[in-house]
Amino acid sequence: MRVLVIEDEAELRTHLQSQLRAAGYAVDAAADGEEGFFLGSEYPFDLAIVDLGLPGLSGIEVIERWRNKGLNFPVLILTARGRWQDKVEGLSIGADDYLVKPFHFEELLARTSALLRRAAGIARPRLRFGPILLDTVTQTVQVDAQPVELTGHEYKILEYLMLHSGEVISKTALTEHIYDQDFDCDSNVIEVFIGRLRRKLDPDNRYQPIETLRGRGYRFTLERSPT
Amino acid sequence: MIQSLHGRALLAASLVLTAFLGMTGLVLDGAFRDSAEASMRDRLQGYIYALLAGAELDARGLLHGPEDLHEPRFNQPASGLYADIRGRDNKPNWRSPSAVGIEIPPTKASQMGVGTFDKVHLEDGTPLYVLSFKILWEEGLKKPRQYTFRVAETLDGFYGQIRQFRRSLWGWLGGAALLLLAVQGMILRWGLAPLRQVAEDLAAIEAGQARQLTGPYPMELRGLTDNLNALLDSAQSHLTRYRDALGDLAHSLKTPLAVLRGALERPTADTDIRPLAQDQIERMTRIIEYQLQRAATSGRTHLTPPVNVAKKAKQVKSALVKVYADKPVDCQFDIDTGIEFHGDEGDLLEVIGNLLDNAFKWCRRRIRISAAVVCEPDGKPICLEMQVEDDGPGIPENVIERVIKRGERVDPSTPGHGLGLAIVESIARAYGGKLAIHASPLGGAAIVVRI
Known about the structure:
The complex is a heterodimer of chains A (227) and B (451). Helix content of chain A is 41%, strand content 22%. With 227 residues, chain A is of the alpha/beta class. Chain A has a 5-stranded parallel β-sheet with strand order 2-1-3-4-5, with helices on both faces. A 5-stranded antiparallel β-sheet of chain A has the order 9-8-7-6-13, covered by helices on one side. In chain A, strands 10-12-11 form a 3-stranded antiparallel β-sheet. In chain A, α2 (33-42) runs parallel beside α3 (59-68) and α6 (152-163) crosses α8. Chain B has 451 residues and is α+β, with helices and mostly antiparallel strands. Chain B contains 9 helices and 14 strands. In chain B, α1 packs antiparallel against α2 (156-191) and α4 (219-265) runs antiparallel to α5. Chain B is rod-shaped, with a radius of gyration of 52 Å. The A-B interface holds A 82-85, 87-88, 91-92, 95-98, 100, 102, 114, 118, 123 and B 281, 285, 289, 293, 296, 315-316, 318-320, 322-323, 325-326, 345-346, 349-350, 352-354.
């Protein structure tokens, strides 16, 4: 999942960036409204975290411009003043949730993953597809009630495919959503990750959860079942 | 520029009065002069006719005035009234006895049969008013001859009359002007007295001797003084609230800071310090938020446009529906579209936001929000009453007091609960209203705010 952070305070921006990376997100960051708006319009982000009190183009204006361009990724706003006037303005212009500074990073993570799940149309933090159970809070995966060890990148790819189950996801799209723009990546790496995922999730080749569509990409094939 | 209203009105009134009386005087003076002049002409004309009637030819065939003149002044030398008759050669044939030794200077030639007036001066400078009358005399003559009859009167009496009239005229007018000005000044003093009183009362307030404009003031000033009173009230309560809130802020920040410092000074600080430090920092954050919110509350505003309550409540509701998108909530709306709030928009949003946020957080499925204007029996609006209900667990009676008490929270596991209500209560108090918590028929809490 690729996240954009727009925050003018350098320390908080760096902190958010490294913490979100540690939590398994691909993170791009911008220090002001103009740069943030540009990044958000040019790259396929899954979510943006926008500070309202930005220099130049304000957070509200950035969100409004994105929405006017038809960009619908979820937006979480950060506000220093807890005034409802600001919150209501931000939410009615197109933001999806708010956090008042200072906040606990755990709270930010919980809101972020809730917004991502909601954007995918899934209300609960645990996703079950046949024998595979994915917990977006603890970032763990079980197959037939047995825990499966995945690396960070393997988890990210699996989560993205499961949140977009049934859709064909190209290798490029997968790369863009897994890595931020600082990362230089060879598309073969994705093939390697998919191969490893298949071996770990389905060693006996019984469910075949990930389908390869030659020249087009990958598709998560299992039906979603209640958790 | 004269700064005082009294001075301006007095100056304007004096100027108008002076101009009016001055012009009246000039017109009266002119009219009197004209009429005096006219009566003098009539008199002189009368004398001419008397001379004509009594004139007769002498032995040499020259025309003489009558021997017996009725007007005694014609017989009295240097009486001021003179007459003469001149022939064609312009030499006097006859003079009245009063004109002995006095030559009436030549005057403008007159037309036949028409009296002509002229003003001339004697040799000694005495002004003289002369009426000349030219005739053709036929009686007792073969051939008619031309004669000019002249009657002259010195202007001393005329001038004396006018002087006397003027003296009394200007005397009376001046007296009347002084009297009117004095009355005018008193009327202005009396009429503007309320303004002076307001100024004095304001000075007393400035000096700290009074807190309000007490009056009574006349109707025209009441709008001004009532608004000033309201302004004074809100400014005073504002000031008090600022002082309290900032004082509280300073005081309540000291305790957690002291705890934090104590914990940090312990030798074993490294491992067990974090949760404690986190907890205290959290406390400080909440205190700052609450107190600064209190300081920011603007309270009842005057002369500002009213805020539509239903519109603002809908905005907050749709914002919260987004935030609580995972929770299906049935939010029942019972607010008339015409209801207005007379106060700060930010304060209203703060109240609705905190109440609805709590309701969304605690409800199981249902929320009901209603608003109404509370009126006095005569229909004058007093305040706005809002009620937010939910079907959540409610607030137990024994903790209600603590919930409302500032900054404290009932359930530490749900951040923000107590703070929201404390903020709403503080705003309600700033508006002279209050917050009450009941049990709702929906099953949870019913929170009623009057602002």
